[in-house]
Structure formats: structure tokens, C-alpha cells
Write a structure and sequence with these properties.
By secondary structure, this protein is α+β, with helices and mostly antiparallel strands. The chain folds into two domains: 121 residues, Hotdog Thioesterase (Thiol Ester Dehydrase, Chain A); 152 residues, Thiol Ester Dehydrase, Chain A (Roll). The protein is built from four helices and eleven strands. It is globular and about 50 Å long.
Length: 275
């Protein structure tokens, strides 16, 4: 186990939900991963160009002025492929905030491999629910993002950063909830907010500076309180899919910070954009 990150939640890293936005979890976990790879003697920088997949679970919110700390461990290694799992905690309370399991090639056999912790293991996103090649042509998908990769969003190697992907995902969420029949303005009026509790990202290609991005989204009400969504990222110049993110989202009351049942209108709207 290696201590790999220690930092702070700045007010500008928090969104209208009054918690740290998902893109800054990605940013802090990216820094954590880079240090872990250094400790392991790996040359990889852990950028989306080398990552195969990333599985995240979110356990407890982080808020402005919270102290965040992370450590990493090797959870699997087989035939030069590894899983590095990182745990981020509120350093003052000790509460686990989130986990991130990075699937990527490793050059060296690690000295120690720890079993994947239950807190990091897939829960709602079972393999059968995840994106598979060919699903990008599904007629139920709706365009939720058109943008371009800025130079400031790229790593030193020139590829689109993990924070960049999560920034687009965050932007898409507002459109996704509008598709679900409960847009941000209505949520605000009703004192509601949203959160992702589990996320699985797969990477198929690379994006670089000035590349165009298009994201198409589908969703499915899968439980009384949870919504399964999927964002597929395309290279806007070639039309090729470069990444897919499957997530489990929910609604919560901003005053009590507790999850609430999805309104019937959300279940009905989901049918029109079904995965």
C-alpha cells in the first residue's frame, strides 16, 4: 500500500449540488495514480491513451474545505495487465469518499497483490449492463455534448486527460436528467440534487488537441431510486467511438442529503431513451 495523494477541496471544485464535482475526483485520482506508477517503477503515465478501463464507486460526499487523502494498491496482475485500486478518504473524519480501479498494462510484476476490496468491487454495474462494441449505433441514444479538446486539457504526452473526459461527462449529466424528465432548473425548484454512485469507463481510442468530441446518451430506470445511464464518446472528425461511460445515478434531497425515489415521470421518460 502506498500513500499517493494529499490535497484539499477548493470551493470552486464544488457544483450546485454542494459537493465536489466528479471531474475533480478524476483529477485527484489521476495525480494519485501517477505517483503510484512511479512507486511501482512503471514508465506509464496512466493517461486515457494507456488505460483500458476505470471503475469507480462513490461512498460519501466531499465538500468545500474538506481534506482529501488517497492510497493505492495493486488488486490484480495477470499477463502484463494489472488493476491499481485507489481509495480516497476525508482525512479529518476518515470516511471513505470514493474508490477508483484503473485497468492498464504493467511492465513489471508487482511485489504484492491485494484482493480487491468490497468497497471497490462492482455493485450495480454488472458486466451484462456495460457497453459493448456495436451499441454505439443504438437508436435510443441522444446527442448531449458537442465540444473540442483544448490544449490545456491534454497531458504532457498530448492526449486528452482523464479530467477532460470527466468534465464532458459532468456537462452531459444536465442534458441526461433533462432527457429523464427532471432537468436542473426543476430539480433546483424542488430542492433536489443528483449524484453518481458508481461509474465504469472504457477507453477504445485516443483524442488529442483540437479533436472534436460528440457524446450520445441513453438511459434506463433500473430501480426505485437509481437510474442507469450511458454516455458514448465519439471522435467528431472520424465518427469512431473512443470511450463509453456507464453510470448509476440517483436523486437526493439537498436538505437531508438522502436519496429519494425516482418520480414516475422519470420512469416514463426513460422509456423514450432506453438503452
Amino acid at each position: 500500500m502506498h500513500d499517493t495523494f494529499k490535497g484539499y477541496v477548493a470551493p470552486w471544485e464544488c457544483d450546485e449540488m454542494e459537493h465536489m464535482n466528479i471531474q475533480f475526483f478524476a483529477d485527484k485520482f489521476s495525480q494519485s495514480l501517477l505517483r503510484h506508477l512511479f512507486f511501482l517503477g512503471e514508465s506509464s503515465k496512466g493517461t486515457p491513451g494507456t488505460l483500458r478501463a476505470l471503475h469507480m464507486r462513490f461512498h460519501k460526499e466531499l465538500h468545500a474545505s474538506d481534506l482529501a487523502a488517497a492510497h493505492g494498491e495493486v488488486s490484480a496482475f495477470e499477463k502484463e495487465n494489472g488493476v491499481l485500486t485507489h481509495f480516497m478518504r476525508n482525512e479529518e473524519s476518515g470516511a471513505l469518499a470514493a474508490t477508483a480501479s484503473f485497468h492498464l498494462p504493467l511492465e513489471k510484476m508487482p511485489d504484492e497483490v491485494a484482493p480487491l476490496a468490497n468497497e471497490a468491487a462492482p455493485r450495480g454495474l454488472t458486466p451484462g449492463l456495460l457497453f459493448r462494441p456495436g451499441m454505439e449505433a443504438h437508436e435510443g441514444l441522444t446527442e448531449t455534448n458537442l465540444s473540442a479538446v483544448g490544449g490545456h486539457e491534454c497531458s504532457a504526452e498530448g492526449g486528452f486527460s482523464l479530467k477532460g473526459y470527466f468534465s464532458r461527462l459532468s456537462d452531459c449529466q444536465g442534458h441526461m436528467w433533462r432527457l429523464a424528465g427532471l432537468g436542473r432548473q426543476e430539480q433546483k425548484a424542488r430542492g433536489l440534487a443528483t449524484a453518481t454512485v458508481e461509474l465504469h469507463f472504457q477507453f477504445f481510442g485516443a483524442l488529442g488537441e483540437d479533436d472534436l468530441i460528440a457524446v450520445h446518451t441513453g438511459l434506463d430506470a433500473v430501480g426505485s431510486k437509481t437510474l442507469h445511464y450511458r454516455h458514448i464518446f465519439f471522435n467528431g472528425k472520424t465518427g469512431a467511438p473512443v470511450a463509453a461511460a456507464d453510470g448509476i445515478g440517483l436523486l437526493f434531497d439537498k436538505e437531508t442529503r438522502r436519496a429519494i425515489a425516482l418520480p414516475e415521470a422519470v420512469h416514463e421518460s426513460a422509456a423514450y431513451h432506453r438503452l
